[in-house]
Amino acid sequence: MTQSTSSSSLAELLHEKLTTRTAQVGVVGLGYVGLPLAVEFARAGFQTTGVDLDPVKVAAINRGESYIRDVPDSDVATFTSSRRLHATAQTSDIARLDTINICVPTPLRKTKDPDLSHVVSAVEAIAQHLRPGQLVVLESTTYPGTTDEVVRPILERRGLRAGEDFFLAFSPERVDPGNATWTTKNVPKVVGGTTPACARLARALYSASIDTVVEVSSPRVAEMVKLLENTFRAVNIGLVNELALMCDRLGISVWEVIDAASTKPFGFMPFYPGPGLGGHCIPIDPFYLSWKVKEVGFEARFIELAGHVNGAMPHHVVDKVGEALNSHRKSINGSGVLVLGVSYKRDIEDFRESPALDVMAAMALKGARLSFHDPYVPIVPARDWPGGYDVASVPLTPAALEAADCVVIVTDHKVFDYDMIRKHARLIVDSRNAIKSDATNVFKLGAPSVGRT
Ligand SMILES: NC(=O)c1ccc[n+]([C@@H]2O[C@H](COP(=O)([O-])OP(=O)(O)OC[C@H]3O[C@@H](n4cnc5c(N)ncnc54)[C@H](O)[C@@H]3O)[C@@H](O)[C@H]2O)c1
User: Fold this and answer.
1) Fewest beta carbons less than 10 Å away: which of 142, 215, 290, 392?
2) Which residues line ligand 1 (CB under 6 A)?
3) Chain centroid to CA 402: how far?
4) CB-based contacts of 184: which residues, under 8 Å, 6+ apart?
5) Given CA atoms 191, 192, 198, 199 in this order, what sign does their dihedral have?
6) What ligand 1 atom has the least distance to the C-alpha of 350?
């Protein structure tokens, strides 16, 4: 057999396994992205193996339990008991898989440079067990060129060639935690393969389990698509946050302005101000792009500017707290401040990069007596916020609201009883426009305060 015949027969064999769902599929990294994906593969009928270094997650899945709110326990239990889903911490299990999707974290270093260490260690583990005929797909958000310049050389170290002996693609994850309408299954999946054969196989894998697959010409384009999406959000949120600060100075409600502007049927899309960006994507991903373009002598000015504006928002919330307390002749120093909501957005439990942590840290530094309530976050451990001590969520009761000198709404969970909060809190700083009525004790971000002295 010639080289090209053998690579095309490897591709045909895998394609056949994917379309008949007899392929053994695997997901490396079973977090917010990887677990929902593994469950969708299992639902589509594939024998699915999840690989994660965290033995607690592996054990939970093998007991049939989910640790992610968007993935019901019942799904994990159904697929583990029917042996369609199985988790392991053994990377050697990768050898028997036909496809491997990489969903490991891509954080930033303190210097805002990309930290690809998780991707590199996952790819090195895969490289050790790589065999002809396997498909590897990177899903972790990263800068354009990662698949070609970082992943491919590691996988090719032992002589196998991408597009000939094994297949390689990038497909950005677009999961939106807490969104019940748009899920892993029905959000279109963008795919870019290293070669047309790679793209065809990645399409076949996703088509079996995800409603719509959108093919682009290369991994580089697919990597850039994700960064456009998240930069679009970061920049527009930065714009509207700056507008909120302008409205604050001008005595105009930014919330009323956005609502009225949103009545324009074309050419406008509402974004809302808030206490700052959080989570694993929007505050981080654009900096992967700005870092990469520095290599080609380009300065990503919108990204840097949005980063400055959004990064300052927690401090504006703290300024509002100072303004609110001042109206009661009090200072932040020594006041009891109750923060409502610490996850980075409503109705989820993830508080990574949450602006609430910066709001809390700044107030702790100014001497506030801090407490918080979040129905989804029982504790903020010392290691996870700059305050440096464990803080546990307190129950949200009329007594707790009445005891606080100021209540700060950082994350507007739907389950909060805002009437009860308004009735019992002495002072409220509302960074999300969660309290709809004007009242002298409510100080909103980006709006004139009725009670301003
Ligand atoms: N969370 C989101 O909303 C979201 C949305 C879109 C894209 N993303 C991107 O998806 C990627 C994963 O994010 P996430 O939120 O799922 O992360 P996560 O932290 O929730 O999960 C990552 C998992 O990978 C495991 N892991 C780390 N290194 C590993 C290794 N070498 N081998 C095996 N397992 C390893 C960790 O133990 C963890 O369970 C990131 O690039 C992120 O930017 C996240």
Assistant:
1) 392
2) 28-34, 51-54, 57, 103-106, 118, 121-122, 140-141, 173-175, 177, 279-281
3) 34
4) 36, 37, 39, 40, 175, 210
5) positive
6) 1
Give the atom of ligand 1 at the shortest distance from the alpha carbon of 141: 41
C-alpha–C-alpha distance, residues 157 and 242, integer Å: 49
Nearest to 127 by CA among 162, 173, 103, 170: 162
**Length reported for the chain:** 453
The DSSP output letter for 433 is: -
**How far is residue 194's CA from residue 206's CA, in Å, rounded to a whole number?**
16
Residue nearest to atom 31 of ligand 1 (CA): 122
- C-alpha 51 to ligand 1 mean position (Å): 12
Tokens representing 64 are: 């049939």
Distance 320 CA to ligand 1 centre (A): 35
Tell me if 289 sits within 8 A of 300, measured CB to CB. yes
- The residue whose CB lies within 8 Å of the most ligand 1 atoms, and thus the one to mutate among 277, 280, 285, 353, is 280
Burial of 138 (0-12, 13-18, 19+ CB in 10 A): buried
Q: Which residues pair with 25 in a beta bridge?
A: 48, 99
* Paired sense of beta strands 406-409 and 336-340, if any: parallel
- Which residue is closest in CA terms to ligand 1's atom 1? 32
Catalytically annotated residues: 281
Rounded to the nearest whole angstrom, what is the distance from the C-alpha of residue 139 to the centroid of ligand 1? 9
3-state secondary structure of 222: helix
User: Position of tokens 């910066």?
Assistant: 358
Give the separation between CA 14 and CA 110, rounded to whole angstroms.
42
Q: Could you tell me the two tokens for 416?
A: 């909060």
- Closest listed residue to residue 242, CA positions, set 288, 289, 301, 311: 311
Nearest Cα to Cα of residue 342 among 334, 330, 332, 352 = 352
Query: What are the pLDDT tens digits along the chain (453 aa)?
Result: 445 558 889 999 999 999 999 999 999 999 999 999 999 999 999 999 999 999 999 999 999 999 998 899 999 999 999 999 999 999 999 999 999 999 999 999 988 899 999 999 999 999 999 999 999 999 999 999 999 999 999 999 999 999 999 999 999 999 888 898 999 999 999 999 999 999 999 999 999 999 999 999 999 999 999 999 999 999 999 999 999 999 999 999 999 999 999 999 999 999 999 999 998 889 999 999 999 999 999 999 999 999 999 999 999 999 999 999 999 999 999 999 999 999 999 999 999 889 999 999 999 999 999 999 999 999 999 999 988 899 999 999 999 999 999 999 999 999 999 999 999 999 999 999 999 887 889 999 999 886 554
